[in-house]
Structures are given as C-alpha cells and as structure tokens.
Amino acid sequence: MRIQLLPASKADLANPPPALLAGITRHYPSVAAGMTHLAEVLTIMGTQPRPLPWADWWAQGDDGRIMGLCGFKGAPDGDGVVEIGYGSFPLCEAKGVATAMAAALIDMAARHGARRVIAHTLMVESGSTTVLRRNGFDFVGMVVEPEDGEVWRWQRPIGPASAAP
C-alpha cells in the first residue's frame, strides 16, 4: 500500500477538498457519519497546537482518495521522543492503510530529527498492535495516560540511518 501524506485540519471539513469528500463517500457508511467522526477525531487531536511536521495528516491513496488520518501528538521531547497516532477510514481497515501511515510518520520523524517513536494501543491484541509490529515497534508494557487511562506502550528507535534519502 502506498500513500501520500497531506496536511490535515478541522477546517478541511467545512469545505472538504475533492480527495477528502471522495474518501469519505467511499470509505464511510455515509457522508454524515464520516464528517461527524472526523470532526470528533480532529477536535481531540487538535487540543494542542502543533507546528508542521508535528501536526495531523490525511493519507491519500493511489486512487486520489483520502483513506485515513494520522499525526503526531506533539513535537519530539527533549530526548527526541515523539508519539504517533493513526486510523484508517472504516471501510479501509485491514488493507494496509494504517501500516503505511505509521511507516510514513516514522520516516517523517526520522527526517526531522526524532530519535524514538512511541505509540499507545488498547490493552488487547488488535489490528493496531499488528501495525506497530510490522513497523518494527517493540512492546514496552502498560502505562497510564491522562487522556486514555491504562494502555500498552510501544516504541521504536529511529535515526539518520532510518531516514529516506
């Protein structure tokens, strides 16, 4: 699966670009359900302003349609650690979209100086744990996050050697 990342914001929902509207139409049960869900997700993701590249990104597939949303929780901390999140649109699940989004975020983080990427999942084996394993993440253990409660933490070291040319 190949994707291209395009900057995303809640403002995109007020006047959706054609690729986003096409993606919502094709990959959600209804346009209304897609718009509502994405507004909720972007509201949660956008609670803290984040400069590019540490912001939110639409995942555009080869067919030109948006297939998912991903991003960084914030800029890397003082140790170079950055957290990622991702989600494919419902009718794109189990098609490699989330795996491709995570890979693209890891690559972007490496190109911009991050040294380690972390991610959190629910405390159960799932599609998301598979995505992280496919992208070289190791399971660290359970942590308590203020927003999410108890979650599993995953991490992957990165560096200049991991960056794309």
Gyration radius from CA atoms, angstroms = 15 Å
Oligomer: single chain
Counted up, domains total 1
How would a textbook summarize the main sheet?
A: 7 strands, mixed
What does this structure look like?
A hairpin with a 4-residue loop joins strand 2 and strand 3 (about 65-70). The chain starts with a strand and ends in an 8-residue tail after the last strand. The protein has helices at about 20-25, 30-45, 95-110, 125-135; strands at about 5, 55-60, 65-70, 80-90, 115-120, 140-145, 150-155. It has a 7-stranded mixed beta sheet with strand order 1-2-3-4-5-7-6, with helices on both faces. The protein is α+β, with helices and mostly antiparallel strands and about 160 residues long. The protein is globular, with a radius of gyration of 15 Å. About 30% of the residues lie in helices and about 30% in strands. It has one domain: Gcn5-related N-acetyltransferase (GNAT) (Aminopeptidase, 3-Layer(aba) Sandwich).
Question: SSE layout and pairings?
Answer:
Elements: E1 3-7, H1 18-27, H2 31-45, E2 56-61, E3 66-72, E4 81-88, H3 97-111, E5 116-121, H4 127-134, E6 138-145, E7 149-157
Parallel strand pairs: 4-5
Antiparallel strand pairs: 1-2, 2-3, 3-4, 5-7, 6-7
